[in-house]
Design goal:
Helix content is 25%, strand content 27%. It has ten helices and 17 strands. Helix 5 (194-202) links the parallel strand 11 (187-191) and strand 12. The chain has two domains: 2-141 and 302-333, Quinone Oxidoreductase, Chain A, domain 1 (Alpha-Beta Complex), CATH 3.90.180; 147-280, NAD(P)-binding Rossmann-like Domain (Rossmann fold, 3-Layer(aba) Sandwich). The protein has helices at 38-45, 136-139, 142-155, 170-181, 194-202, 214-221, 236-242, 268-273, 288-296, 315-320; strands at residues 2-8, 11-16, 26-36, 59-67, 79-82, 85-86, 106-107, 119-123, 127-129, 163-166, 187-191, 207-210, 226-231, 246-254, 277-280, 306-310, 329-333. The chain is of the alpha/beta class. Strands 3, 4, 5, 8, 9, 16 and 17 form a seven-stranded mixed β-sheet that branches. The protein has a six-stranded parallel β-sheet with strand order 12-11-10-13-14-15, with helices on both faces. Strands 1-2 form a two-stranded antiparallel ribbon. The structure holds zinc ion (2 copies). One zinc ion (ZN) binds at residues 37, 39, 58-59, 143-144.
């Protein structure tokens, strides 16, 4: 089969590799659509601790092509997507509903071969059948939405909270929809790109501000800060200044993935004095099925976030180029 193989940072090619064979409790899925995400860029750039060589890709949907011994829940031809989280199910984190922190945590396309390939092997317990109304493109969006659902479970927006969100990329624009639907009052979105802010406005932001105008506009119109501040950029300089807009008793959510060795400086006195809550949100934690429901019911609109459809052969070039500002989500179609 054809697969994208990243051999070492900045060295990737599409090549012939053996089709995976399903073991006990596993299925093999013929990939039909696979989203490319920031993590895939990080793996390509060497900013993620992946074992090389690796086939990246973890946002996918397709058709079951083989089932391994002992699999009774799926059959050849089933249209499916799958949670890429690999967890043991036995450690204390797994047994306390925190599988994203499993002591033997792994993920397809991250620690083992992923879905930027014609076929991918997955534990059957991770696989979810697509509703017949759901396209493969939508199915491949369930994983990023599942990350958003986990973020929302962490954040617990209260009715009429005022919210400030940095970053209107593909993830930020899903958060916009989720936060708007969770009952936020103000939902102010900040980005460097005005076209992305137009998307944010359409999808539920109450106000959009260009990054360059943040200091003047927010300082003037929100002198007491916000109840909730969310970073969906992962850029340390943005994260550091985001705290300037936290009101008293505010919550901060770090949703964007910052470089592993980066750091910011902040005042511990202020955290204490303003009763702040600082939250992280790591990947997916039993949120795959709920995410499927959100996508199925159109609560989170994902179709319009797919701005680029490419062939697998085009992916090495895509990963090597700087990301175009007009690009939200690129999906590989097979
Ligand atoms: Zn992803
Ligand atoms: Zn575990």
């Amino acid at each position: 089969m054809k697969a994208l193989v990243v051999h070492s940072p900045h060295h990737a090619s599409v090549e012939e590799v053996p089709v995976p064979i399903p073991g006990e409790g596993e299925v093999v899925i013929r990939v039909k659509a696979c989203g490319i995400c920031g993590t895939d860029y990080h793996i390509f750039e060497g900013a993620f601790l992946s074992p090389y060589p690796i086939i990246p890709g973890h946002e996918f949907a397709g058709v079951v092509s083989e089932v391994g011994p002992g699999v009774t829940t799926f059959a050849k031809g089933d249209r499916v997507t799958a949670d890429p989280t690999l967890y043991c199910g036995e450690c204390e984190y797994c047994l306390t509903k925190r599988v994203n922190h499993c002591k033997r945590w792994g993920a397809l396309g991250n620690t083992t071969a992923g879905s930027l390939a014609e076929y991918v092997k997955v534990p059957a317990r991770n696989v979810v059948r697509l509703p017949y109304t759901m396209s493969f493109a939508q199915g491949a969006f369930v994983e990023p939405v599942a990350c958003v659902v986990h973020g929302m479970n962490r954040l617990q927006v209260q009715a009429c909270d005022t919210v400030l969100l940095f970053g209107a990329g593909a993830m930020g624009l899903q958060l916009v929809q989720a936060i708007a639907r969770s009952g936020a009052a103000d939902l102010v979105v900040v980005d460097v790109a005005s076209d992305k802010l137009d998307w944010a406005k359409r999808l539920g932001a109450t106000r959009c501000v260009l990054s360059q105008d943040v200091g003047t506009e927010l300082g003037r119109d929100y002198p007491d800060g916000f109840d909730i501040v969310v970073d969906a950029t992962g850029i340390p300089a943005v994260i550091e200044q985001a705290f300037d807009y936290m009101g008293k008793t505010a919550k901060f959510l770090q949703f964007g993935v910052a470089p592993k060795d980066s750091s910011i400086s902040m005042s511990p006195f202020t955290i204490y004095n303003k009763d702040w809550t600082i939250l992280g949100s790591m990947a997916v934690n039993n949120t795959f099925l709920p995410a499927l429901r959100w996508v199925r019911e159109g609560r989170i609109k994902v179709d319009e976030l797919v701005t680029h459809r490419v062939k697998l052969d085009e992916v090495p070039d895509l990963l090597a180029k700087p990301k175009a500002s007009a690009m939200l989500k690129a999906q590989v179609v097979f």
